[in-house]
């Protein structure tokens, strides 16, 4: 049983990462019909939505693209900032989707932002408390660790609607603004769906781990 459990928590994220890498590698070689750089795609969508104050910057790393709500900046990895591919356009549009969410006070995004400090504390201290609780057979300590961990798991779960919504916004924008042609929609959507798999996998593994710990706690309290 435990072998199956560990196989799942290792293989599911690995599979998701391979899907992302494969889709990105494939479609980063397919130029978009408009030949727009990722940076230009981001700027076009931002301006079309009146977000002139949101900046677009280049950042190092592989698929390190993100939107920073503190500085109101869309940061694109070098390959996507300068790239003219469908993958670059899709990822740039996705990150701008988060900027639009921020501007429109998207409820799930606000909730996720509010959870950040709680989730950070949970991530940092949960396993310490859980290990002490398990090895010292202290059910109260284990329960406290589970509660801390639950906050981090909730953050992972809330991330899902945020990411899916950003991808939906991205597709709407690249189509309506003519960034891609109608026959390029399928490929663009594949990139966005593959990227979303990493969040789905992370959330699934986190929930599975939380359930396992709850079962351990239940068994411990039954023995007391």
Automatic annotation (TrEMBL):
Pfam families: Zn_peptidase_2. The chain crosses the membrane at residues 114-135, 142-162, 196-218. Keywords: Membrane, Transmembrane, Transmembrane helix. InterPro entries: Zn_peptidase_2 (IPR007395). This is Membrane protease YugP. The lineage of its organism: Bacteria, Bacillati, Bacillota, Bacilli, Bacillales.
């Amino acid at each position: 049983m435990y072998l199956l459990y560990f196989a799942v928590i290792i293989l599911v994220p690995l599979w998701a990462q391979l899907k992302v890498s494969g889709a990105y590698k494939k479609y980063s070689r397919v130029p978009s019909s408009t030949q727009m750089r990722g940076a230009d795609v981001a700027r076009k969508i931002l301006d079309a939505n009146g977000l002139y104050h949101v900046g677009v910057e280049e950042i190092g790393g592989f698929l390190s693209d993100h939107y920073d709500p503190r500085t109101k900046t869309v940061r694109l990895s070098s390959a996507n900032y300068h790239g003219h591919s469908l993958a670059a356009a899709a990822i740039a549009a996705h990150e701008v989707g988060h900027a639009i969410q921020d501007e429109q006070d998207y409820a799930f995004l606000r909730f996720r932002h509010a959870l950040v400090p709680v989730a950070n504390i949970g991530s940092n201290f949960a396993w310490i408390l859980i290990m002490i609780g398990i090895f010292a057979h202290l059910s109260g300590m284990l329960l406290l660790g589970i509660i801390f961990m639950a906050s981090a798991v909730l953050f992972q779960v809330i991330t899902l609607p945020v990411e899916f919504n950003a991808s939906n916004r991205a597709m709407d924008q690249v189509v309506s603004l003519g960034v891609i042609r109608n026959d390029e929609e399928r490929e663009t959507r594949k990139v966005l769906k593959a990227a979303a798999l990493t969040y789905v996998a992370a959330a699934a593994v986190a929930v599975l781990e939380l359930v396992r710990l709850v079962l351990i706690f239940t068994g411990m309290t039954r023995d007391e």
